[in-house]
Amino acid sequence: GPMLVFFVLQLLEYCERVRTRDNLTRAQTLLLRIRLAALFGVVGTATVMSLYPSGHFGPISARVRGLFVPHTKTGNPLVDSVAEHQAAKEGTYEQYLGVVAKFAHIGLGMIALAFTNDASSFLVVYGLAAYYFSHKMVRLILLTAPIGSILVGMVIGRVLGFCVEGVCGFHLDIWEIFGTAIVDVNNEPKDEPPAEVKSKRAKSNGAKKTKEKSSEKEKGKPKNEQPKSSIVDNIAVNVLLRCAWAYLAYYLYTEAQPEMKGFGEFSDRMAVAMSHPTILFKGNTRSGGEVLVDDYREAYWWLRDNTPEDARIMAWWDYGYQITGIANRTTIADGNTWNHEHIALLGRALTSPLKEGHRIARHLADYVLLWTGGGGDDLAKSPHLARIANSVYRDMCPNDPTCSRFSMPGGRPSQMMRNSLLYRLHSHQLVEGVEADKNRFKEVYRTKYGKVRIYKILSVSKESKEWVKKNKMQNCDAGGWFCPGNYPPGLQKVLKEKKDFAQLEDFNRGASDEEYQKQYFENLNDPAKARRRAKKDTAKEVEPDRPDEREVKIEAKPGRPTKEEIRDINRKWVDNEITNALFDVVRSNDLNRLALIAEAQELLLHSRSKDGRGPMWWAHEFGRKDIIEALKDLGVSDKLKDGDGIL
Question: pLDDT (tens digit, 9 = 90+) per residue, 127-136?
């Protein structure tokens, strides 16, 4: 793309030089451009056709393709899983651009309708292109910042110019003033016109003077003479108009002052938010204190200081660069992993049942790192991981490209999610009945605020690790656009089950998967139907070892608990079905269930789990403001400390 633009500019420059040298007319110049464009097209087509079979031309990526399709999804679950690739929502422009988003369209309309020329037309094209692409992909809002600032600046400049011209009483041409000032400073006389021009001007001026004299004689009085009252009236009107313009300018300035101040503060906040590292952030404790949450960096430093240099870390690709850059350890995937099938294998290992996931992980990595701190942690992302895995390993969610069976309906994990390796490691000893298999995984590190957990993979295949050291892992085509890779023999049984994902833009692979794409978009367009189908498919599944929190039987004990009862229950730290049910209530933000528990036995709201935490801690972690207020109204304290001494 950039090289093509470069060659086109060279052709245009060549045409311009020829036009100047040979003094060509506009029609001749246009004909020259057409001939050269045709010649360039023929040569370019021949070049592309000769190089195309060698694979030196990469496919149009799904990200680029997503900018031109009518829908906001690309058909690739990996690309669709990235939040930055989603379409911009209402309010997003104002969120990032502030007041600029309110007035930029006025500047665009002003230029397009009233002040269009060769130079300003660039701003119109730039503005429309930036808005279109940013509307299709939210990360491209960055493109609208420069053009938005220019357009708003032109609106402000034009309004200010009108006011100044109204006050001064004449048309303000800044370039003429600037040029006059330069002449005055340098005391340089203006160039004298040639003698022939001066004689012509003299004759012309003489003729004008003769006409003026004869006209004045005929009229009997000077041409420009007016009554004194008319002159006075004109001066009064002129003064009033200038005063009105001055007042308008003052009014606009005073009205704009709050917006100007607010925009300055907004810009400072955005600068701080966008320039600060994302793995460090400040949080507030229940007591109102401020703490620096450094869990992510601490986890990477732990890997750096406590694992062998050749250790391989299994983590979702989002954190690949951080693990490589900060921990200096090899990661299974990162943001530059183009191989869709490899990402799908990683997704399958994390979303498969624990034993099956371990069979894959032991051939690929030595440690598993998970983000576990709520919000956008790995559990929240896991439905996307399942979709990506299912795009290659179709037996995970048969006939369901969006893998609706792997979800959290009502804030509770489905059976498929509950059995997964990711959920078991994520919720290990945090949710009653959820334990990591001690024969397969060992928790070796948990950060201070629980944002990251690291597990050592037990029974790592030494044969596979040695095989990786001795063999070349990459196996790419000529252009390097498609790299299926090589894997240890121990993974061949799993790899036989895969079906290479045929992306819509993979024109150089000669493959397609129309049925999958069709069903994928159908499920996205009607997610309720997809969920009903998934629910029907899993209706016969029974959870083996954990009671349903919604059916926990609570002994009715109405009335407010005493201080002694509250003190006693606060001293008992235990994981049971009550704490499990309360955790589920907070996570799903279910105020109705909270009210039912309180109505049955209010004392239970003071229960605390094995780590010393209870509903108030979980409500703060998940940001459930309504539940926090409800718990406070019911007398649940927010001044107690958990097992780590954190409020």
Answer: 998 888 888 7
